[in-house]
Amino acid sequence: MEYSPPPLFRQGPSALARLVFFVVLALALLISDARFSTLEIVRGVLGAGLYPLQRAALVPRDLFMGAADLAVSSTTLRSENEQLRAKNLQLSQQANLAAALGAENNHLRALLQLSQRSTTQSTPAEIQYDTRDPFTQKIVIGRGSQQGVNDGSPVVNEDGVIGQVTRVFPLQSEVTLLTDKDQAVPVQIVRTGLRSVIYGTPKGDSLDLRFVPISADVLAGDELVTSGLDGVYPPGLPVAKVVRVDKQADTAFARVICVPIAQVRGARQLLVLHYVNDVPPRPAEPDPVAAAKEAKARRNAKPTDKPAEKGAGAAKAPEKAAEKSADKAAEKPAEKPAARAAGKNARSAQPASAAAGARKGEKTEKADKSAQGTKP
Q1: pLDDT per residue as tens digits for the range 340-352
Q2: How many separate domains does the chain show?
Q3: Quick one: three-class SS letters along the chain?
Q4: pTM for this entry
Q5: Has residue 371 been placed in a domain?
Q6: Could you tell me if 166 and 210 lie in one domain?
């Protein structure tokens, strides 16, 4: 039995021929569009024509999502408004307290005749990217020497210390984070006032407070702030908090593990401080080589000078004795016998008596010559 349609209904090519034609056409369009982008115009026209239909189909979804977002956003805004209001009240109280403490501090420093602390200026900056070295804790900020950033300036955020500027470019700067293994910050414990130095660790997840004696009063939870003794960081900036204290009997120092207060890796906006230290510089230490040479020269000069002085004194002693004895002999009358004068001067040195006799002989010779000259 034949199931094909009668000749009256046969029109056009067969189904197989049409299938092959459309497959070839689809492949040609795909290749031409991928190679030469020939269907961009057609695609744009079709997209513009179908856009109203797409928007009309998405209206119910948009209405539902808008109502949900409105409810969520109104609740979120209320909670954030309450939090900001409470934080504003807290900050206003802290500002009033800080103003009162600042006035009291200025009064006490003026009373004690101490120098006033200079205010610290700052430059806002934003982190651009991390450095390429994965073994260092460094970042790059979008402020450089043209914006007044100097090498060594401290970098902070609203929570505390972030790091320090270690390299400056015209439009960018490199900041070494607080957790870097080569970074050190002089700190002070707020509760006890103990001063020490805090270092980063190789892992970069904690801080190490070094040079703390075992007998020091350090507890978990103590807050560390900058001491300001290095002249780089202003005093009083929050740095870290103590989390663990390990004391061992065989070591002289305790191991104190701390964590930074500020989110070192999570910060985005930073402040670069322009801190100017008014403390005078340290006095210059003497050169040890020059001091050793000077001390050696003094030791060598003392033994040579003393014998010379003694010899000069010994040479001057008989001369002074001779002069004194000669003066005494000249003042006595001529009729006194010379033996009596010699007996009195016998206790003195013999060179003195000889000198006196020589002077007497010279006086007698002068007297004889004058007498011969006056005869007629």
Answers
A1: 434 444 444 444 4
A2: 3
A3: CCCCCCHHHCCCCCHHHHHHHHHHHHHHHHHHHHHHCCCHHHHHHHHHHHHHHHHHHHHHHHHHHHHHHHHHHHHHHHHHHHHHHHHHHHHHHHHHHHHHHHHHHHHHHHHCCCCCCCCCEEEEEEEEEECCCCCCCEEEECCCHHHCCCCCCEEECCCCEEEEEEEECCCCEEEEECCCCCCEEEEEECCCCCEEEEEECCCCCCEEEEEEECCCCCCCCCEEEECCCCCCCCCCCEEEEEEEEECCCCCCEEEEEEEECCCCCCCCEEEEEECCCCCCCCCCCCCHHHHHHHHHHHHHHHHHHHHHHHHHHHHHHHHHHHHHHHHHHHHCCCCCCHHHHHHHCCCCCHHHHHHHHHHHHHHHHHHHHHHHHHCC
A4: 0.51
A5: no
A6: yes
